[in-house]
Amino acid sequence: MAELTREQVEQSLQAMEDPYLGKTLAKAGVLKSVDGNQVKLELPYPSAGVAISLSQDVARQIQNDHGLQADVSVSHRIVTHQVQRGVKLMEGVRNIIAVASGKGGVGKSTTSVNLALALAKEGARVGILDADIYGPSQPRMLGISGKPTSKDGKKMEPMEGHGLKAMSIGFLIDEETPMVWRGPMVMQALEQLLSDTRWGELDYLVIDLPPGTGDTQLTLAQKVPVSGAVIVTTPQDIALLDARKGLKMFEKVGVPILGIIENMSFYICPKCGNEDDIFGHGGGASMAEQDGVEFLGAIPLDRSIRSEADNGAPTVVAQPDSRLAKLYIELARHVAGRVANQAVDHSHKFPNIVVQNR
Asked: pLDDT per residue over 152-164, tens digit each?
C-alpha cells in the first residue's frame, strides 16, 4: 500500500474549512504528524463532540484527492493566548473568558454556566468565577452547597459541581444576606475570590460578570488577564443599546470581543410549535455586523432553561442530548475557536533572569 506524504495531507486539508476557526484546516496548522497512513490532527479548541466526524471527513477527503486510505485521529491542545498589555497571567489558568451584558435580565448567568459546562463536555478543564458580588447566582445554578475549605490557611479550594471548579461570594455568605458594601470593598472581594482560589490547571476560566459597565468591569479589564469577552443580549432595542456600551468598554481597554450571543431569541410554543419573536428579531446579528464582531449564535426562550438552572442542573447536564444543549455546545466551540485565533502568549517559555552581585 502506498504511503501518504505530508504534502498530500496538507493539500487535502487546504480544501476543508473549520467552522469554528473560520479558516482551512491547513491554514489553521492542525496537522501534527503523518506516519505511513497514520494521520494525527491536533485542534486548538476542545473538540470531543466533533473528533470522530472530523476524522471521517478528513479520511474521505484524502481518499477522494489521492486514492489512498488514511487512519485519521483527532485530538486537541489548549494553549495560553495573549491578554491585555501589562497584565500578568494567572498561574495554571490558560485562558480567561469574561461573559458580560450591558443590562440585567438578559440571561447572562444562565448563558455563562451552560457555556462553561459545554466547554467541559467538549473535553476542556474549566472553572467558573461568579463575579456578581451583590447578586451571586452560580451556587444555586450549579447545585452546590457548603463553604470552601483551605488546606494551607492561605488559599481556598474551589467548590465543584458537574465537573466545574467554581468560586462565588455566595459560598461564603448566607443566600439571603444582602451585600451592603461600597465599591472598594466589592473590588477587593472580587480580586480575592480570583487570586486566593487554588484553581489548579484550567484551560478556561469563565467569569460571570455583573450587568453594566461599572467598577467590576473596569477592575477586570485593568487587573485580570482576559483572553476575550462574550457579550450576551436579547433582541430588543433597549437591550442592544446597553450591550453596545459593554462592547465599546471592552474595546477601549484592549480586551478582544469574542462575539455576541443573542439570548431569548425567539419563543416556541410547547403546545402548537408556533415560533414568536417576543423580544424582536435579529437584533444581535445586526449589532454584530454593525460592530464588526462575530455573531456566535442564538438561544431560544425556553422554560426548561430557566427551571433546570433553578434546580441546580443546567441544560447541558440536565438534557445533554437535547437540541438546547447542542446549541450551547455549538456556541462553546465557536467561543473556543475565537480564543484560539488570538495570538499565542509565549512569555511562560522565557526563563527568569536573575542578576546577583558577587
From this structure: 988 999 999 999 9
